[in-house]
Amino acid sequence: MLLAEAAAVACLDQATGGVGAGEELGGGQLKAFTALTAPIIAPAGTRIPGLRFGDPRVHALLQALLIHRLLPRGFTNRELRTLIAPLLGTSPEDITAGKMTYDLRRLREHGLIARIPHTRRYQVTDTGLHDALRFTHAHDHLLRPGLAQTADPSPPAPSRLRAAARAYQAAYDDLARQAHLAA
C-alpha cells in the first residue's frame, strides 16, 4: 500500500506541474493528497474514512463534483446518486440513500462540499473543485495510462515507465532471494 500511495503522490506531483518555486517536496502537494486520503477524527470523536485515490467509487464522486459545481442551486443526495450510478456502471436503485449519505459525509468533512443552510442541498467548495480537478486529472491522465503501460503483456512500444517497473521488480526479486524469501 505504501508503494501505491507513493506512486499516487508522484502522479499528483506530475499532474500539477511539480514542486513550485520555494516549495519543498512533500509540501503543498503531499499535504493536499494526505488531507484528502487520510481519515479524519470529527469533533465528536467519530472516525471519518479518507477518500482512497484510485478507488472507482471515489473517482466517480469526484467526477460528479466537477459537474455539480456548475449548478447554482447545488445538488441533493438523489441527484448525486443519479449522476454517479452510470459512472460506476450501475443503476441509481443499486446505490442506496445510506451509501450516498455516507459519501456526502466524507465529502463534507474533507471540505469538498458544504451544506446549504436550511436545505438538504450541497454546494461544491472552491477546495472541492480544486481537489476534484487534481485527483481526476492525475487518475485519468497519469495513473490509468501508467498502469496500462506497465501491465500490458505486449505493449505497442517500449516505454521508460515499463523499463523502470521491470527494473524495480528485478531488484525486489533479488532482495527477496538474498533474504531467502523467494518462492
Give structural notes:
- This protein has helices at 2-15, 28-37, 56-68, 77-87, 97-109, 126-151, 160-178, and strands at 40-41, 47-48, 113-115, 122-124.
- The chain is mainly α and 183 residues long.
- It has two domains: 2-151, Arc Repressor Mutant, subunit A; 157-183.
- Strands 1-2 form a two-stranded antiparallel sheet.
- Helix 1 packs across helix 6 (126-151), helix 3 (56-68) crosses helix 6 (126-151) and helix 4 crosses helix 5.
- The chain is elongated and about 65 Å long.
- Residues 1-6 and 8-26 have low confidence and may be disordered.
CATH C-level of the largest domain: Mainly Alpha
- The average pLDDT score comes to 80
When the domains are counted, the total is 2
**Percentage of helical residues?**
55-70%
Predict the CATH topology of the largest domain. Answer: Arc Repressor Mutant, subunit A
Q: What's the architecture of the largest domain, going by CATH? A: Orthogonal Bundle
Range of strand content: 5-15%
Basic shape: elongated
Main β sheet profile: 2 strands, antiparallel
Q: Trace the largest sheet across and list its strands.
A: 1-2
Strand-pairing-aware structural class: mainly alpha
The separation of the N and C termini measures 21 Å
Number of helices: 7
Task: Write down the secondary-structure element order.
Answer: HHEEHHHEEHH
DSSP summary, beta strand count: 4
Low-confidence stretches: 1-6, 8-26
In short:
Helices cover 58% and strands 5% of the residues.
